[in-house]
Amino acid sequence: MAINLELPKKFDSTVERTHLAAEHILRPISRKYDKAEHEYPKELDDLGEAAKQARGQERTGESETEETYGVANGASMRAVLSAREMSWGDVGLLLSVPYQGLGNAAIAAVADDEQLERFADVWASMAITEPSFGSDSAAVSTTAARDGDDYVINGEKIFVTAGSRADHIVVWASVDRSAGRAAIKSFVVPTATEGVTIERLEHKLGIKSSDTAVIRFENARVPAENLLGSPEVETKKAFGGVMQTFDNTRPVVAAMAVGLGRAALEELRRILEEAGHEIDYDRPASSQHASVAEFIRIESDWEASWLHTIRAAWMADNREPNSAEASMSKAKAGRTVTDITNKAVEVGATAGYSETLLLEKWARDSKILDIFEGTQQIQQLIIARRVLGKSSADLK
After folding, report:
1. Where are the domains of the chain?
2. Average confidence (pLDDT) over 183-200
3. Pure H helices in 23-126
4. Mean pLDDT across the chain
5. Rounded-to-integer distance, Cα 326 and Cα 250, Å
6. Rounded mean pLDDT of 347-360?
7. Share of the chain above pLDDT 90, in %
8. Other C-beta atoms within 10 Å of 279: how many?
9. Three-point CA angle 303, 91, 372, nearest 5°
10. Which pTM does this prediction carry?
11. β-bridge pairing 168-174 and 124-127
């Protein structure tokens, strides 16, 4: 039976809009903000306002709805398509677009209807990682103690994307350290809250246009209603609620890798063709120039990455559990984009290694896509647990 992998036409406008933004807004200023680390890209303000308006239309029912098409609305698919096209322009700048923070995805995944309305227009970063741990999200040591109608948050978070620019922070904290991972909850904290301090901004290998902050919380008080999801500590469910965030965001990160990989593939194809090496898909790769054979190999990996990504997004839109597929998409795309960009630098020779082209920048930017939202090793561990039917206690 034939499989139709063509995307529904209702997504055409999303792809066209976001690609135009990537081509005419992000790509032209890509090198500028790579060299001006920590300087806010004011050119993104209009994109941020457009994103806010689009979310407002979704809330009021003015945008395309489930009833319009008779199928799931496709919010996850739109997100991955947007991320793919915008990352073709610049990954760091995409992460800097106002009102599009990773914390917004967390709110969308866990918040109740009242919270969705209350936090509809915020720009939220997401604070998970701490100095004592990286990928082990269950090791959160930041605490949130109930005090009357509030929670009082204490701890330190590192590598917070858009941490100094966003107006809110989604903070992972434990409400009871003795209860382990089941007590880890996420809280929406206004950045201007007393006791919230931006300690410093990191200097990084890549995505320099995106700010990455260290944030300290000292007796930061937030209303109890800012806790996302249930306040109850349910040991049987562990912290599945907060982890659900990753099932939504990992395919988006995979799509970012796919978009950046496509940019590098296009540049690599141009270099090969200008050197007189035709890419012939009707001939065995082994009978063509070695660089062409390598191109065909990494392009096939890129295609596989994209198929994994849209599968994970489709499952999310159709309310099917997609934890394994989300990790598969992230693992495959993260590894593939580093392979593609490094190969492009190698084949590009002096032009690839210098700042003549954007290839060296893309190689630097690509590495984070294999790290954040869970490293390669973490994704493989999650996939193994799902395939083998093992728990986190059984397989570490």
Report:
1. 9-118, 124-228, 240-388
2. 96
3. 30-35, 45-60, 66-69, 75-89, 91-94, 102-110, 113-118
4. 90
5. 6
6. 94
7. 75
8. 18
9. 80
10. 0.92
11. parallel
**CA pair distance 222, 99, nearest whole angstrom:** 21
pLDDT tens digits along 1-49: 456 778 889 999 999 999 999 999 999 999 999 999 999 999 999 999 8
DSSP 323-352: HHHHHHHHHHHHHHHHHHHHHHHHHHHHHH
Report the candidate in 93, 104, 80, 92 with the shortest Cα–Cα distance to residue 333: 80
Name the class of domain 9-118. Answer: mainly alpha
Which of 368, 344, 370, 367 is CA-nearest to residue 357? Answer: 344
- Residue pair 59/225 in contact by the 8 Å Cβ criterion: no
Q: Are 370 and 261 in contact (CB under 8 A)?
A: no
Distance CA 368, CA 363 (A): 10
Residue written as tokens 């978009």?
Answer: 259
Q: How many angstroms separate the CA atoms of 295 and 219, rounded?
A: 54
Record: fold of 124-228:
Butyryl-CoA Dehydrogenase, subunit A; domain 2 (2.40.110)
Question: Which residues lie closer than 8 Å to 359 by C-beta, 6 or more apart?
Answer: 264, 267, 341, 344, 345, 348, 351, 352, 353
Q: Identify the residue whose tokens are 């493989």.
A: 380
- The whole-number pLDDT of residue 70 equals 34
Q: CB of 234 within 8 A of CB of 310?
A: no
Type of residue at 64: E
| Tokens (6 digits) for 250 | 């990992």
**CATH-assigned architecture of domain 240-388:** Up-down Bundle (1.20)
- Please name every residue paired with 212 in a beta bridge, in sequence order, or none if there are none: 161
